[in-house]
Amino acid sequence: MAAWARAVRGLLLDVSGVLYDSGGDGGVPIAGSVEAVRRIKASGLKLRFCTNETQATREKFVKKLQGMGFDISVAEVIAPAPAACHILKERGLRPHLLVHDDLVPEFAEIDKANPNCVVIGDAAANFTYANLNEAFRVLIGMEKPVLLSLGRGRYYKETDGLKLDVGAYMKALEYACDVQAEVVGKPAKKFFESALAEMGVLPHEAIMIGDDIVNDVGGAQQCGMRALQVRTGKYRPCDENHPDVKPDAYVNNLAEAVDIILQQM
Amino acid sequence: MAAWARAVRGLLLDVSGVLYDSGGDGGVPIAGSVEAVRRIKASGLKLRFCTNETQATREKFVKKLQGMGFDISVAEVIAPAPAACHILKERGLRPHLLVHDDLVPEFAEIDKANPNCVVIGDAAANFTYANLNEAFRVLIGMEKPVLLSLGRGRYYKETDGLKLDVGAYMKALEYACDVQAEVVGKPAKKFFESALAEMGVLPHEAIMIGDDIVNDVGGAQQCGMRALQVRTGKYRPCDENHPDVKPDAYVNNLAEAVDIILQQM
């Protein structure tokens, strides 16, 4: 019946728009998602939460989700900031940070003196004219500018309206310095691969479930994974006519996806 | 001797970096430039000043140059804001402005109610997180977003350091809204053509003199004009190895260019 649901050993879940809808300071669980996560865990399937969230540390993020009733721990969360820290250490990079205040603790153990790269995240209110000029000057002052971007989202919605996401500011710095940013987070292949490695699951054994047609679905498929788009969160009907990306299936929400997958086991 | 200087009927001069060096609130004339402008006028050559300046009205800009001793009038200045106003009127566009406070009077006669396009200039300190989000929301709310950008510069230098120019913010909005901005100002072909039309001079009869290898030299050459790069202003020795653009000649400064051109008349 649902060929896409066969022979699954691991699931990757996007968080915002799949588990909960964000808004204001908190968020509201999407109907059925709390129970769906519990059922995945009870099934024995491997599970990771794969988010591009960069406005808070994983600790704070997980606490928020636990507060909504989700069975989730920090060790199960794949997020851009820790992935960036891994790259920084590996390559001896010392970042100038243009990120949200609440994300800074993720970089506590990283040497930030005399920076030789810039890390940009969704800095929100920290995207001031002065901070952008400063990050630009650090970059343009390098012989070979290195720019790491925690995601490449265009925009997102908050209760008080749409906001430009990190991708827009990344493009501004890319253009000004004539460099190409290295994107850490979805849809970067390495990011998905690190999640698969942690689970000990091969790409063809895993399914990504997300609301973002490009960053979740397209990114996971590029890695050889199957990918579903939920019709919650930032999903829009026009996504179903996307010129480049076609999900392996659409589901109304996470609960429906889990129903189908567990039936096939 | 200087084949590039023959059969000239009109000159287009870039202003910042050719006539004067900007810095702080004022600027300093480049040696020989005040006299060079006088000699051009005395020669009977047609002349226009072709600038991407968008931090002040032409009136204010011209007053500053007159204060430095330049023989220049508002009617001789080709600048992006008036060119944008022309487009706005022609196409019935009502702009949401993201520009420098001092530029706003240039749009005094333009209907700005219920905007159906965004005009972005070098807004400098007006490039706040809130203002960028607001311009973005106006754009993304349109069925077919229209973005006019007053130039596409990457960055410029002020006494307190390098600053991101309008092009960087233009790229941010382009990416977020998946649109392509229409650039008004150099290097847009229409911009140079309007200057030629005002002078009543054909492209092959005109020479552009500027310090910007891409926006001045490349732009003018694309219109069929000859173009010189001065070794003043933002000129850097590495410009002489530019992969795409090769000026018809290099001159040390405006005075030298005018010497050679007038000798050929």
Automatic annotation (TrEMBL), chains A, B:
Organism from which the protein derives: Indicator maculatus (spotted honeyguide)
Leader sequence segment: 1-17
Cofactor: Mg(2+)
PANTHER family referenced in this protein's UniProt entry, alphabetically: 4-NITROPHENYLPHOSPHATASE-RELATED, PHOSPHOLYSINE PHOSPHOHISTIDINE INORGANIC PYROPHOSPHATE PHOSPHATASE
Pfam families: Hydrolase_6, Hydrolase_like
Organism superkingdom: Eukaryota
Molecular function as annotated in GO: inorganic diphosphate phosphatase activity; metal ion binding; phosphatase activity
Catalytic function, reaction form: diphosphate + H2O = 2 phosphate + H(+)
Keywords in alphabetical order: Cytoplasm, Hydrolase, Magnesium, Metal-binding, Nucleus, Signal
Family: Belongs to the HAD-like hydrolase superfamily.
Recorded name of the encoding gene: Lhpp
NCBIfam families, per database record: HAD-SF-IIA-hyp3 (TIGR01458)
Recorded GO CC terms: cytosol; nucleus
EC numbers: 3.6.1.1
Compartment(s): Cytoplasm; Nucleus
InterPro entries cross-referenced by the UniProt entry: HAD-like_sf, HAD-SF_hydro_IIA, HAD_sf, LHPP/HDHD2
Name of protein: Phospholysine phosphohistidine inorganic pyrophosphate phosphatase
Task performed by this protein: Phosphatase that hydrolyzes imidodiphosphate, 3-phosphohistidine and 6-phospholysine. Has broad substrate specificity and can also hydrolyze inorganic diphosphate, but with lower efficiency.
